[in-house]
Design brief:
194 residues; single chain; elongated
């Protein structure tokens, strides 16, 4: 996700997203995120004066928009093409990282929040997951699925893909992606007129 020529702030955010995707949020300090991004700790605090939660929230939003751009582009060809792109994106990530990286959005979403408040990173994860669901649901509706079915199927797709990424990491195999793809494609086909 990160490029070495990226501006310092973006490089820190991308590095944090990568680090969280590998180790989770609780197991990653802001110092480690800065080091991973090859950025000075002082610069990290300059850009993210509120600390780890602010940086993690930005990393989640960065990942969310990165995925959403791909989804928007591929969904122009329909929900089946969008699903393939969504699955291919995560397949590439787990394979290129030798099953060490997953989705930083999921990593943040499954961690126990400290205290009774919803931390910024968790709120960002909820926003991102909703954004992905909204994009998929709109495409499903545009291709003939009923409104309620579109919403439910979009939720199922996001949940299945995110869970499948975790399964791939645990099993060190992309087979769960293949199985999920086949079943979700069948559901999309039966819900749409394509």
């Amino acid at each position: 996700m990160a490029e070495s020529s990226a501006p310092s702030r973006e490089r820190i955010v991308a590095g944090a997203a990568d680090m969280i995707s590998r180790r989770g949020l609780s197991a990653t300090s802001i110092r480690e995120m800065a080091k991973h991004a090859k950025a000075p700790l002082g610069s990290t605090y300059h850009y993210f004066p509120e600390g780890k939660q602010q940086l993690a929230a930005e990393a989640v939003r960065y990942t969310g928009e990165w995925v959403a751009r791909s989804l928007r582009r591929e969904l122009q060809a329909g929900p089946a093409a969008g699903l393939r792109a969504f699955l291919d994106l995560w397949r590439r990530i787990v394979m290129e990282s030798d099953f060490h990286a997953g989705c930083p959005v999921l990593a943040v979403a499954i961690e126990e929040p400290p205290g009774d408040e919803v931390p910024p990173a968790l709120a960002a994860a909820a926003e991102v997951l909703q954004q992905w669901e909204t994009l998929l649901a709109a495409s499903l509706r545009e291709h003939g699925a009923e409104a309620e079915q579109s919403t439910q199927l979009a939720t199922l797709i996001v949940a299945a893909v995110e869970g499948t990424v975790a399964m791939c990491r645990a099993k060190r195999s992309t087979q769960p992606l293949d199985h999920t793809a086949e079943q979700l494609q069948a559901l999309i086909a039966s819900a749409t007129r394509d």
